[in-house]
Write a structure and sequence with these properties.
Blueprint lengths: L1 H7 L12 E5 L2 E4 L4 E4 L2 H4 L8 H11 L14 H11 L8 E5 L2 H16 L3 E6 L7 H5 L1 E2 L1 H4 L9 E4 L14 E6 L2 E2 L5 E2 L2 H14 L2 E5 L23 E4 L10 E5 L1 H4 L18 H16 L2 H16 L6 E5 L2 E5 L3 H13 L2 E2 L1 E3 L2 E7 L7 H18 L1
Parallel strand pairs: 3-16, 5-6, 5-7, 5-8, 8-11, 11-12
Antiparallel strand pairs: 1-2, 2-3, 4-13, 9-10, 12-13, 14-15, 15-18, 17-18
Helix pairs in contact: 3-10, 4-10, 12-13
Bound molecules: 4'-deoxy-4'-aminopyridoxal-5'-phosphate.
The site of 4'-deoxy-4'-aminopyridoxal-5'-phosphate (PMP) has 15 residues, from helix 5.
């Protein structure tokens, strides 16, 4: 099968992990050769409730028996979309009252950027160095890493990058600015949480300039950091909130949330400003609704905080320069690229999946599912420590 994969599936790397997946359940992925892997990155922050959560699977089955795709987004009343949208927006601050459903993270970013441009009538955009917002052209235009951008230039014009967590140059946010887009916790940039006062200052600058503030919580959303969304800890409310990844409990769905007033600008000049055929697919929306219901009724977010505490207590200072991040969105800053590579490789051989981030090769990314139990968590952390010890 691996040879067919290499021959027929377009490749994006010379060294794919190449696991031949048989099935996945809870915190585990099983391969065709009978090995068990602990999924300690949750498919990069997707399966936060574990693989195939029974409530999510049940909702999918029920929806499949009713209907699949029936019409492009926004025309027909589809119960799973409405149920999800109602539950989501009632959890959010008042002005985040409507959701536009899409298929993925990058599509949420695209929609958010278009909405900000349309609403403000402006085109200047501000992003941050080392950010990541997706790989389509608009998202790449506001992604702050030249190695990924350079081969695709020219991208969108009038995009400017500020340094994360730095008060310098905030006057770049001015009366020509449509939006500032940022991750409250940079994910691919190396799991870097924004500082509270700084984030609040960005909010102030946006208000003064009449620019919209877009939070990309595609990675940090749906309980991963110990809150439903990371921004809740900052006492700052964005004008547009982007989400995807863990939203569908393993099914593809994304969304951007804003106020009715802002969304009004998508209705005219021209009507149907942002068409998506499959956005908010009923099966994905049913999964998202079941996933969110479960997330809100269990103690998952508290568990994310416990996971943070356990990991920090166990690993901090033990040959690791820094353990940073929030909840179950954590990064281990190691001393060298060799050490990082060896630790990730050793864990892989032992059946533990850890991650890299796109913009840093000395950081081990941890994003365990929030259902992980103490015993398994401890087993994984012990092995990480052993691997660090062996290669230091
Ligand atoms: N924004 C952030 C913060 C992300 O982490 C990601 C995915 N890693 C994206 C956007 C893009 O999401 P997708 O891969 O679903 O397009």
């Amino acid at each position: 099968m691996l040879d067919k994969f290499l021959r027929h599936i377009a490749q994006t790397s010379d060294a794919p992990m190449g696991l031949e997946v048989s099935h996945a359940e809870g915190p585990f992925i099983f391969t065709k050769d009978g090995k068990r892997f602990v999924d300690f990155i949750s498919g990069i922050a997707v399966s936060s409730l574990g693989h195939r959560h029974p409530k999510v699977v049940e909702a999918i089955h029920q929806q499949v028996d009713k209907h699949l795709h029936v019409m492009v987004y926004g025309e027909f009343v589809q119960q799973p979309q409405v149920d999800f949208a109602e539950l989501l927006t009632t959890q959010l601050p008042e002005k985040l009252e409507q959701v536009y459903l899409v298929n993925s993270g990058t599509e949420a970013t695209e929609g958010a950027l278009k909405l900000a441009k349309k609403y403000t009538g402006r085109s200047k955009l501000i992003g941050f160095k080392n950010s990541y917002h997706g790989d389509t052209h608009g998202s790449l235009s506001v992604t702050g890493r030249d190695v990924y951008r350079d081969p695709y230039l020219p991208l969108l014009p009038d995009v400017h990058f500020l340094k994360f967590n730095t008060f310098e140059n905030l006057d770049l946010i001015d009366e020509k600015t449509a939006a500032v887009i940022m991750e409250p916790i940079q994910g691919e940039g190396g799991i870097i949480p924004a500082e509270k006062e700084w984030l609040q200052e960005i909010r102030n600058r946006c208000d003064e300039a009449g620019a919209l503030l877009i939070f990309d919580e595609i990675q940090s959303g749906f309980g991963r950091t110990g809150k439903l969304f990371a921004f809740e800890e900052y006492e700052v409310v964005p004008d547009i909130l982007c989400m995807a990844k863990a939203m569908g409990g393993g099914m593809p769905i994304g969304g951007f949330v804003s106020s009715k007033e802002i969304f009004q600008s998508f209705k005219y000049d021209p009507p149907l400003n942002h068409v998506t055929t499959f956005g908010g697919h009923p099966v994905s929306a049913a999964a998202a609704h079941a996933n969110l219901k479960e997330l809100l009724s269990g103690n998952y977010m508290q568990r994310a905080k416990e996971i943070e505490q356990i990991i920090k207590e166990k690993l901090q200072g033990k040959g690791i320069m820094e353990v940073r991040g929030k909840g179950a969105m954590l990064g281990l800053q190691l001393e060298s690229w060799e050490l990082t590579k060896n630790v990730v490789e050793d864990c892989f051989q032992r059946g533990i999946l850890l991650g890299w981030t796109l913009h840093s090769n000395t950081l081990v990314r941890l994003a365990p599912p929030l259902i992980i139990e103490d015993e398994l968590l401890d087993e994984v952390l012990e092995f990480i420590l052993e691997a660090i010890g062996r290669h230091s």
